[in-house]
């Protein structure tokens, strides 16, 4: 019997499969971190609120008072104070992050919570107090690791709440990241008023992030400043997912910061090294946040470093520069 010729649809199926295989191989080669990433350098460290007290994350919600569930302290620093920030820089931090809120008398106070009861011996909202009133508080008053049996930080941070201008002046040649805690355009405008008084060389070392509205108020006044928010990061990542396979970095990803939970980076073209290289060329920092990125989870213990990409040389978010810096040097 004569040999039967393959059906046309079978030949088309094989041709389609071959084309898809070649396309997939081409995408992998063009975006291979192994082939094209530089793989050089060490991680840069972002010290979250200076050197801070850490806490277990299980069960934490938006309204959880984390000061009442800290790990037993092995240092005496209270977050968001100049003392804790200086300790972070001395330990090896490359940049320090701190939180800013506007007081009732229009000052830029450095404090995380919107209310005072959790961490301090005060009460009410930060926004309802003057700076002078806030200066009298004990910032370590509410911290306990044993359900209130002891309060090891009480009395150690009385009067230590700084202002944003004071922090900027205290570290004149260091990189700083300012977190606008309230998503209010008025807060962004107040911060922009101060930043606008700084020379261009100093502005180049300061970044701002926070809510979409407050950050936009800063960017509209000072478009040259590095700024980011959820909306900015979302626009960048969507655009990059669409175009990054070509090696192109979209404009939405330029001169900004990306705070990326480690579990999601794997879906980005060129991850990890080539992606970091592309963003560096676009003047954008890639800051890796531990876990899902919830509740300021950082690379705080030696075992946390094992979860970062091998040879990572972007930025790492940490609450414990004193622990992590010696391991990354």
UniProtKB/TrEMBL annotation:
Molecular-function GO terms, alphabetical: phosphoric diester hydrolase activity
Residue span(s) of domain GP-PDE: 43-329
SUPFAM superfamilies registered for this protein in UniProt: PLC-like phosphodiesterases
UniProt-listed InterPro entries: GP_PDE_dom, PLC-like_Pdiesterase_TIM-brl
Any one biological process term the GO annotation gives: lipid metabolic process
Identification of the protein by name: Glycerophosphoryl diester phosphodiesterase
């Amino acid at each position: 019997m004569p040999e039967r010729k393959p059906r046309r649809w079978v030949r088309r199926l094989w041709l389609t499969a071959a084309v898809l295989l070649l396309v997939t191989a081409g995408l992998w080669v063009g975006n291979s971190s192994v082939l094209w990433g530089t793989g050089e350098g060490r991680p840069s460290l972002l010290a979250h609120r200076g050197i801070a007290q850490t806490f277990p994350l299980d069960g934490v919600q938006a309204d959880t008072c984390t000061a009442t569930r800290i790990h037993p302290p092995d240092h005496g620093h209270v977050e968001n104070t100049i003392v804790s920030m200086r300790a972070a820089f001395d330990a090896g931090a490359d940049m320090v992050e701190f939180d800013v809120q506007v007081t009732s008398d229009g000052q830029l106070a450095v404090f995380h919570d919107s209310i005072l009861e959790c961490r301090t011996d005060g009460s009410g909202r930060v926004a309802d107090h003057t700076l002078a009133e806030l200066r009298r508080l004990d910032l370590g008053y509410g911290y306990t690791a044993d359900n209130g049996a002891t309060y090891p930080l009480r009395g150690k941070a009385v009067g230590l709440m700084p202002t944003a201008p004071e922090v900027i002046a205290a570290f004149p040649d260091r990189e700083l990241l300012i977190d606008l805690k309230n998503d209010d355009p008025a807060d962004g405008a107040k911060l922009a008023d101060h930043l606008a008084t700084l020379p261009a060389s100093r502005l180049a070392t300061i970044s701002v992030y926070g809510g979409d509205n407050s950050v936009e108020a800063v960017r509209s006044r000072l478009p040259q400043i590095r700024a980011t928010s959820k909306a900015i990061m979302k626009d960048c990542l969507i655009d990059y997912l669409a175009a990054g396979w070509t090696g192109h970095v979209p404009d939405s990803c330029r001169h900004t910061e990306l705070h990326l939970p480690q579990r999601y980076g794997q879906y980005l073209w060129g991850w990890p090294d080539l992606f970091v290289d592309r963003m560096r060329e676009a003047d954008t920092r890639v800051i890796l946040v531990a876990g899902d990125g919830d509740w300021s989870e950082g690379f705080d213990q030696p075992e946390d470093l094992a979860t970062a990409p091998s040879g990572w040389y972007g930025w790492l978010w940490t609450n414990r520069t004193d622990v992590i810096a010696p391991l990354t040097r």
